[in-house]
Amino acid sequence: MAGVSELESALQMEPAAFRALYSAEKPKPEDENLVFFCQMGKRGFQATQLARGLGYTGARNYAGAYRERLEKES
């Protein structure tokens, strides 16, 4: 997925259109763990809030962000 700006329209697509565009199953609003993250944390938080606003109650933000994950692997 390209980014937060694309997320709203992606989560509102019909499942078949989502699959055709992203080659993946569209998450369901009731899915328990729809995890968002980014390099620093801000966009991941924004994506989580947007998804929750669209009814994706299991949307979560990986607060440590990508940078933290890389540091832990070093």
TrEMBL record:
One of its GO terms (molecular function) is thiosulfate-thiol sulfurtransferase activity. Coiled coil: none annotated. Residues 15-74 form the Rhodanese domain. GO terms for biological process: sulfide oxidation, using sulfide:quinone oxidoreductase. It holds the Pfam family Rhodanese. GO terms for cellular component: cytoplasmic ribonucleoprotein granule; cytosol. PROSITE patterns: RHODANESE_3. InterPro entries: Rhodanese-like_dom, Rhodanese-like_dom_sf, TSTD1_mml. The active site is at C38 (cysteine persulfide intermediate). It comes from the Eukaryota. PANTHER family: THIOSULFATE:GLUTATHIONE SULFURTRANSFERASE. This is Thiosulfate sulfurtransferase like domain containing 1.
